[in-house]
Amino acid sequence: xxxxxxxxxxVPRTERDAIRDPREPRSALRTLLTEARPExxxxxxxxxxxxxxxxxxxxxxxxxxxxxxxxxxxxxLVAPDRVLTASHCLTTPRCDDAWVAFPATTDHEAAxxxxxxxxxxxxxxxxGVLLQDWALLLLERPLPRPFATLASEAVREGTIxxxxxxxxxxxxxxxxxxxxxxxxxxxxxxxxxxxxxxxxRVGWLSGCPIEPGNSGSPVLDxxxxxxxxxxxxxxxxxxxxxxxxLPERLGR
Length: 252
Known about the structure:
globular, Thrombin, subunit H, disordered N terminus, single chain, six-stranded antiparallel barrel, 2 domains
């Protein structure tokens, strides 16, 4: 033991050695920030839609630590190998470096698949809340999970719908939770009074706080059918959700 201690003391440590040493707190932190793979879990496995998961694209802007975190959104499996999400989540024309993760539920194991192609997305590339906002992604392989049933009819005013969303942990950025909440469908009347006629282009939800990571969340009716997807929202205090209608491409 004394020989080992002596040999260690004989090797001078440098700042670079400290960073490389996995026992050093700074090294552990750096490894966590650069290598932690985002994961998603169900808040309640018995009420966790198996067709909904976490969509991850390469990031664009560095955070306060200098790291460039990934862009994280919510997506819905609409075919065994296709996922619908919000188009503003896409950070590159291609999706070679993007992937989708689905949490384990009571009946299905967790699953991860890479995105291999963007099949289609809303042709309007302008960045605006009052514009339709969707993208259809092709996965590398079909997944053994049920996919969402589609219903393109508009949801009636006052209807209570379920929004299933992935939300990042406020402290541990690699951890995410999928949970469902109830929201109320509204007309565009109130929004038109403040935003003009363009508010009719999108759908509106009340009692529906939207957090970062919720873009692309499915809007599900009482039968569990996919009726729209969330692409924007207000501060949680006001609880306003903005939705995109299902694209015609999905029905083909």
